[in-house]
């Protein structure tokens, strides 16, 4: 079984995503070590694979920890270690390899259809999730990425990419299970946010998509974990 470095980008904010990633790693028989990157914890050595969390704030912020992280990411890619980078961690990985991060006019929030590119439809990691829905929550997008794009948004921005034989990343959250997402949709604060960002009836539509998260979560998160030595 693998020793997984889980990069936590939540900056101390309470979250369910990082805990879900840790549980998924442990449930697949792996050892998971959580690294508080924004809290200044040293980046690990001697690991077998990498998971990254999402997180709040801007991936363009100027911080002391960003430059060492970029160097670390590039070294991990050079060593061809398995990576699954998610949301904020994916944005930072894209920055490390020269991708452009831009601020969208409106944030994406909620459940969306997984729209694969031609390369994504043939990719063993992403194709296993088709057809399904995914959970997105981000304001900053990725474009001009010189790697294989596996999924794209309506504006052509990158939603998933492959960085090598064992390294992938996505803007959406494969750790978002149907149970977690149903509880999120039932939160009155979330309902208010959805009403501001979407047309009437979108919450009902999203509830109908919830069962379809199971396929993407199993294929993208647990599929990645099950391939680790």
Model description:
The protein is an alpha/beta fold and 229 residues long. It has a single domain, classed as 3-Layer(aba) Sandwich (Rossmann fold), CATH 3.40.50.880. It is built from 9 helices and 9 strands. It has helices at 17-27, 66-78, 88-96, 118-122, 124-127, 178-185, 188-197, 202-209, 213-226; strands at 3-8, 31-36, 49-52, 83-86, 100-113, 133-143, 148-152, 158-162, 167-170. The strands form 2 sheets. Strands 2-1-3-4-9-8-7 form a 7-stranded mixed beta sheet. Strands 5-6 form a two-stranded antiparallel ribbon. Strand 1, helix 1 and strand 2 (31-36) form a beta-alpha-beta unit. Helix 2 crosses helix 3 (88-96). The longest helix has 14 residues, at 213-226. It is globular. The N and C termini lie close together (5 Å).
What's the helix and strand layout?
Blueprint: E1 3-8, H1 17-27, E2 31-36, E3 49-52, H2 66-78, E4 83-86, H3 88-96, E5 100-113, H4 118-122, H5 124-127, E6 133-143, E7 148-152, E8 158-162, E9 167-170, H6 178-185, H7 188-197, H8 202-209, H9 213-226
Parallel strand pairs: 1-2, 1-3, 3-4, 4-9
Antiparallel strand pairs: 5-6, 7-8, 8-9
Short structural description:
With 229 residues, the protein is α/β, with parallel strands linked by helices. The chain is 36% helix and 26% strand.
N→C terminal distance: 5 Å
CATH second-level architecture: 3-Layer(aba) Sandwich
Specify the structural class.
alpha/beta
Main sheet characteristics: 7 strands, mixed
State the name of the first-level CATH class: Alpha Beta
Largest sheet strand order? 2-1-3-4-9-8-7
* Poorly predicted parts: none
The radius of gyration over CA amounts to 16 Å
Residues in β-strands, percent: 25-35%
How many beta strands in the DSSP annotation? 9
Looking at CATH, the homologous superfamily is Class I glutamine amidotransferase (GATase) domain
Order of helices and strands: EHEEHEHEHHEEEEHHHH
Principal-axes geometry comes out as globular
Q: Tell me the helix content.
A: 25-40%
Summarize model confidence as the mean pLDDT: 95
CATH topology: Rossmann fold
The oligomeric state of the chains shown is single chain
């Amino acid at each position: 079984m693998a020793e997984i470095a889980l990069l936590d980008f939540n900056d101390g904010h309470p979250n369910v995503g990082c805990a879900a990633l840790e549980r998924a790693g442990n449930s697949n028989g792996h050892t998971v070590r959580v690294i508080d990157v924004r809290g200044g914890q040293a980046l690990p050595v001697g690991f077998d694979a990498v998971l990254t969390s999402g997180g709040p704030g801007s991936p363009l912020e100027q911080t002391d920890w960003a430059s060492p992280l970029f160097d670390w990411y590039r070294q991990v890619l050079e060593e061809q270690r398995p990576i699954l980078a998610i949301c904020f961690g994916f944005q930072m990985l894209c920055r490390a390899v020269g991708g452009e991060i831009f601020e969208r006019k409106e944030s994406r929030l909620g459940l969306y259809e997984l729209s694969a590119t031609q390369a994504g439809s043939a990719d063993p990691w992403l194709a296993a999730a088709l057809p399904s829905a995914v959970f997105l929550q981000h304001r900053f997008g990725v474009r001009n990425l010189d790697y294989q794009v596996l999924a794209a948004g309506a504006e052509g921005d990158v939603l998933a990419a492959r960085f090598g034989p064992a390294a992938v990343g996505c803007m959406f959250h494969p750790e978002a299970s149907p149970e977690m997402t149903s509880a999120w949709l039932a939160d009155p604060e979330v309902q208010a946010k959805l009403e501001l960002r979407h047309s009437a009836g979108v919450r009902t539509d999203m509830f109908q998509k919830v069962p379809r998260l199971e396929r993407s979560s199993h294929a993208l998160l647990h599929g990645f974990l099950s391939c680790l030595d």
